[in-house]
Amino acid sequence: MTIKTLHSGLCSAAAIAALIAGSPALAAQIEANSRISNVIVYPDSARVARVLEVELPEGATSVLLRGLPLNLDPASLRVEGEGSTPFSIGSAQTRVAPTDPKVLPESAANRLRDLKARADAIKTRIDALEGRRGMVQKFADAGPDKLGAFGGGLDIAKWTEAFEAVGRELAKVGEDIRLANVERTQVQDEIRALEASNRSPSGAQPARDVIIDLEAAAASKALITITYQVRGAYWRPAYDVKLTTDKGAKAQMELVRRALVRQRTGEDWTDAEIAVSTSRPGRGVKAPEVYTERLAFFDPQTVARDRAKDSALRETSRAQTMTAAPAPAAAPLAMRAEEREAVLEAGDFEAVFRIPGRVDLASDGSERSLRIGTRQITADLSVRAAPAFDPTAYLEASFVNTDEAPLLPGELSIQRNGVFVGRGQLEMVAPGALTRIGLGADERVKIERKPVIRKENEPTWFGQTKQEVREFRTTVQNLHPFPMKTFIVDRIPISENSAITIEQLPATTPPNDKTVEGRRGVLGWTFDIAPNETKEIKLAYRMRWPADRDVTFETLPDNGERPIPLPRPMR
After folding, report:
1. Are 350 and 278 in contact, with CB atoms under 8 Å apart?
2. Backbone angles phi, psi at 211, to 5 degrees
3. Cβ neighbours around 51 below 10 Å, total
């Protein structure tokens, strides 16, 4: 007979009381061994399933599992089981594993006492620094209009000096606090290491025990499965792109999808079934709230306070960058088994790739590369260039994602006709969406952009309008023995001020796209160029602005943040 029961990790007190009341005596405890059956790895965590087989006596029994990861989420613990005779699951709970104390050697005990005294001294120093930072912050909050003698306002000529002084002091105090916290963390780590060696003679890491309360109507053989969520594991996508061309014919491209899996959960995954999922349990389940935004009058005190804070943050960030330890080198890929294709299970809201066979993955942070899919694609090739910034023609392949699962953002490793040409980055591509990926420089398409005209007037009286005319010529030459589709991108400035006018001149070669990817002022020309043919594109525009004002170019990012100005204004 088989019974399957699903139960949460936390049961009500009434249920536990009923279970105990129904037992003639206290429940017996059985310590059982378990093994990992399967793991689903998410981009920010993992869900682990363990199985254990036990012989249940008649009546109430507690099953004890030792050595589960300390960072197991107790709220995620679930238990289900089946047996040869009926039995019920009463509750499941976790506890930090008890350890066997031992006496420290005298030298270690003295070291522990010294470390604790040092930790107390560091805490006292941090408290003093925090008080100092609070005083400086009050000084900054007062504003320059109250910093002068006898409570009067500070001379406006000294405002900048006051801002910088407050910023420097906040940055210095912040850096002192950061260094003190680093020192305290190091001391606390050493204290924990000494205390752990006292608790655990074998050097084992702290762990959790799981206790499952069961009750059987008769002696039974039971198969119990427990699942739990654990932090310290993740996977990230990566792709191998292998392009094969044959004298201009349709290019064949192999796209190999990989999962790079790494885990430091505190338990080794040995002989386990591994799957990777696109779901993100740790991301949250609800959209952020949107609150009322108010437009208020400009307050110079608020501006002064914000500038002082910004200056302090910049100084602290710069100091942290200079003192930060270099990042460790990435662990090499550990290919331990023959590569096999994963099985895709595409749901309405997530995709799960189940790796065939069983896998070993140690909890040491090493990265394992698992092949989860391969696609053969007939790609459309073209070259793309932005000669105002780089005259290189870059080969591109465009294709539609025909998979049921999205292509997640990840690193591309690119080969052309068996030769490695570099690495790129793939953005998110939804099922059915068109995307393009760069395949490196095409040395047989030559591009050159030159200025042809740059004229500006010299105003002779106050208030005259200043103007400047610019014209550029771009030439594209195809040295392939077959035609190439070519896409050239360039730009003219835009103006959002009525006093500055910009007009495109008739000499401009008409573009196919006047707002490339929705970007104002960014123009695109698309054309096919025959073997050994040369084509020419002209771009000409006129700018006008008041002669008594200076202007500057600003690059507008796509994310709506502040413009990025050029270093010097254009005069």
Report:
1. yes
2. -120, 125
3. 14
Q: Cα torsion for 176, 177, 182, 186, to the nearest 10°?
A: 100
Structure-token pair, residue 390: 């780089």
Cβ neighbours of residue 273 under 8 Å, at least 6 residues apart?
37, 38, 39, 354, 355, 358, 359
d(CA 465, CA 546) in angstroms, rounded, equals 5
CA distance 38 to 40: 7
Residues 6+ apart with CB under 8 A from 66: 31, 97, 207, 209
Residue bearing tokens 């014919």: 249
Counted residue by residue, the chain has a size of 571
The DSSP secondary-structure symbol of 76 reads G
Bigger pLDDT: 134 or 51? 51
Please give the residue that has the higher pLDDT: either 296 or 265. 265
Residue bearing tokens 């007009």: 503
CA distances from 259 to 100, 317, 359, 409, 518 (A): 41, 34, 13, 12, 33
Q: Between β-strands 220-230 and 46-56, what pairing exists: parallel, antiparallel or unpaired?
A: antiparallel
For the residues 62-91, what does the mean pLDDT come to? 87
Separation between Cα atoms, residue 510 and residue 517, nearest integer Å:
17
Closest CA to 219 of 42, 57, 62: 57
- Would strands 59-69 and 28-31 be described as parallel, antiparallel, or unpaired? parallel
- Backbone conformation region of residue 140, classed left if phi is above 0, alpha if psi is from -120 to 50, else beta: alpha
Question: CA-CA distances (angstroms) from residue 280 to 257, 344, 350?
Answer: 19, 17, 9
Torsion of CA 125, 126, 131, 137, to 10 degrees: 130
Q: What is the DSSP letter of 72?
A: B
**pLDDT, tens only, 238-261:** 999 999 887 665 678 999 999 999
Contact (Cβ atoms closer than 8 angstroms) between residue 104 and residue 198: yes
* Residues 406, 411, 416, 421, Cα dihedral to 10°: 160
Write out pLDDT tens, residues 159-183: 667 777 777 888 888 888 888 888 8
Q: How far apart are CA 406 and CA 411, in angstroms?
A: 15
- Bridge partners of residue 341, in order along the sequence: none
pLDDT range class, residue 156, cuts 50, 70, 90: low
What is the CB neighbour count within 10 angstroms for residue 203? 7
Give residue 321's identity as a one-letter amino acid code: T
Residue with tokens 């699962």: 405
Three-class SS of 181-202: HHHHHHHHHHHHHHHHHHHCCC
Contact assessment for residue 264 and residue 234, using Cβ atoms and an 8 Å cutoff: no
- Number of H helices and E strands in the chain, helices first, is 4, 28
For 131, phi then psi, to 5°, come to -65, -40
Q: Running DSSP on this structure, what letter comes out for residue 259?
A: E
Rounded to the nearest angstrom, the gap between the alpha carbon of residue 384 and the centroid of all alpha carbons in its chain is: 29
Which residues have a Cβ under 8 Å from the Cβ of 445 and sit 6 or more positions away?
A: 383, 385, 393, 476, 477, 478, 479, 480, 484, 486, 529
Per the structure block, which two tokens stand in for 526? 């698309």
